[in-house]
Amino acid sequence: MLKKLTCLFLAAGFVFVLIGTATAFEQGNERKGKYMFRKNCRSCHQEGKSAEPLNPVSKTQAQWERAFERYERLECADEWEGLSETDRTDILTYLYNHAYDSPSPATCE
Amino acid sequence: MQTRLHLICVITLAACLAFSWQTQAAEESSPAPGRAMARQAGIMSGDWTTADHSEMEKLQQTFESGPEITEACLSCHSKADDQLSHTIHWKWLSPYEDGDLIGKAGYSVNNFCISTNKMEDQKCSSCHIGWNGKEDGINCLRCHGGADMDWQAQFKDYQFFKEMGETELVEEIQADIKKAVTDITRPTRQNCGSCHFNGGGGEAVKHGDLDASLIKPKRSLDVHMGIDGQDFSCTRCHTTQEHQVSGRVYSTPAVSERKSLVEDDLAPKISCESCHTATPHKDGKINDHTDMVACQSCHIPEFARAHATEMTWDWSEAGKLKDGEPYIEKGKYDRPVYKSIKGTFTWEKDVVPKYYWYNGSVAALTAKDVIDPSKTVRVSHPVGERGEDQSRIFPFKVHWANQPYDKVNNTLVTPLLSKANDGYWKTFDWQDSLSRGMEIMDLPWSGELGFVETTYVFPTTHMVAPKEQALDCRACHQLEDGRLENLAGFYMPGRDHFPMLDYGAWGLAIAALAAVLLHAIGRIMASPGKREE
After folding, report:
1. How far B157 CA lies from chain A's nearest CA (Å)?
2. Class of the A28-109 domain?
3. What is the pLDDT of residue B12?
4. Which of B41, B26, B339 has the alpha carbon at shortest distance from B202?
5. Domain ranges of chain B
6. What gap in Å lies between CA B429 and CA B317, rounded to an integer?
7. Can you tell me the ipTM of this complex?
8. Chain A nearest-CA residue for B419
């Protein structure tokens, strides 16, 4: 019994650690995030437009997370303020899940 | 007597000064004839639109796909689709030659992104003016839409969220669609530039005189388009008849006749002479040049004056990976100098053009032509020679490349590239991408891959600088390192000289001087005697 319990605790602990390393934030709606990113960010962040082109693969997962934690410092902070907390989480979810070092990086040529 | 003489001298001097000042003032106030003509031709028109599309009933519906929008457009503009379907913008085939040989959708090849594989390569087709590459019909809004919209993604999102029952999002997306559908313009710089500023696979890759810097250029970059100057849109010169946009300068010239609007007010307004006439300068000597030298040669002193343009592309270096992954290295101007998918590049800014005789046509190879790989292959080159009626000395960007060819058949080859097609950019396998790419073209491929050095030319005609920056006579008329050093077969003052003639003339001049001196000495020697007499 004790053995079984230890196994269970160990397994649970392992799962928690995995989740902890996989995402440091609560995952939102990735599909919505993709749309919100296109609508709100890509309008400027693309080649030939006013800001540096950005795609999910432009940054690593850690870099995206940092950017979203400190968006107040960015030039376009006002645009960020216009989005709801959920919108921001959705966008981060999309970018994080398809970041440069993610298991499924976005395929932009 | 002496006072009178002084007075006359002073009056004459004053009159001369006054006259010269007056002429100078007159010169400053009156513009050169060509400038005056162009100002007359180009009076800012204001808004000519007679329709407000946001009031059109047909456009007040729910649009669930692109073709539905086109259908709504055609319900009023009933001839537009037929007109457009005959143009190069739709067909990607030269409208001036029969068959399917010349054009992006034909067998034409270039030395940057090589080929669209008859429009089968999906990445290339993203510039086609249809809703979905070459599928699903014409997207009128690519050229006439004022809103910046990724239509494919927009409708995909619409369908997805509709199926998910996300009513709020669906309404938001549909509202954006409706807003975009009623925001109709004559083609703006953004419309034209979304493809033409990004040709060859990226901003400023293909042309040295067409890049995103022309969306909001200063007058110093483009005297016509400068937002602090004339603020012309592309369509100001690229006039259109039945959706046929004037100004294509490849296999056929942009215009067959150099007419000014004074001669024919309905002629395409595409050449410099259209508005400026063939004698635009005040100085007659400079006007004497216009039958030999194109305006662009002096008035576009350098191209790529705002953004660096790509000058070389070496495909043979493509395919290197880091830790099994493709990578990008950036260099000067923050531009990629290496991409695993494409090879190495070099970029240049403020580039001095190369000058050639040019009658308005560019001869280009196709994937069917046999090449001689022992020499640098001219994938395209300007046509024209001195003495031909339409030929002028014209400035070009010359793009160098090292590109794939078939070592057995001696032909330029067309790899399938896009990831979406499982092309080279995904597989990094030349054999696979070439055998599939050549199969689409229905051309033979021996399997023996080589790389051959090639050149490709682009006529330089945009980014005309203000007249203060136009080239000085000495840029060409000088002994060494003049801009026209490579053009032979004619005598050009200042550049060319015949040593024997020079020595002979100098000898005669010295002899004449000596004779004058001797004569003077003779007179001086002889004169005291005369006086004494």
Report:
1. 7
2. mainly alpha
3. 61
4. B339
5. 203-517
6. 13
7. 0.75
8. A109
